[in-house]
UniProtKB/TrEMBL annotation:
Lsr2 dimerization domain location: 1-62
Compositionally biased intervals (Low complexity): 69-78
Keywords: DNA-binding
Molecular function in Gene Ontology: acyltransferase activity; DNA binding
Residue segments, region Disordered: 59-83
Pfam families: Lsr2, Lsr2_DNA-bd
Name by which UniProt lists this protein: Lsr2 family protein
Amino acid sequence: MARRIVHQLVDDIDGTLLEVGDGETIHFSVGGTAYEIDLNNEHAEEFRAALAPYIQAGRRAGSAGGGRSASPRRSASRNSDTAAIREWAGANGYKVSERGRISAEVVEAYRAAH
């Protein structure tokens, strides 16, 4: 028996099914929360146009991919301030577990605040 897996991209604004090359997934972050949205080409242009003034006035905070040696996620596990980061995160509306890794998003926000 053969199996065929079909990956379909649907515009998250109007629900239309996108053909190959007619859309894209856009990744963005606001308020320390990362998002992604699937948009057709027209909506993607509208999205970028709406953000253009803010992007032009803003400054880069770091790359999305991050270098291996400078990864906030990797350094968080070795950071002696882990308890302080957890306490700060809880007081500032971030959800963090009592154990385990602290997300790169939370570590970056903590560092930006201090």
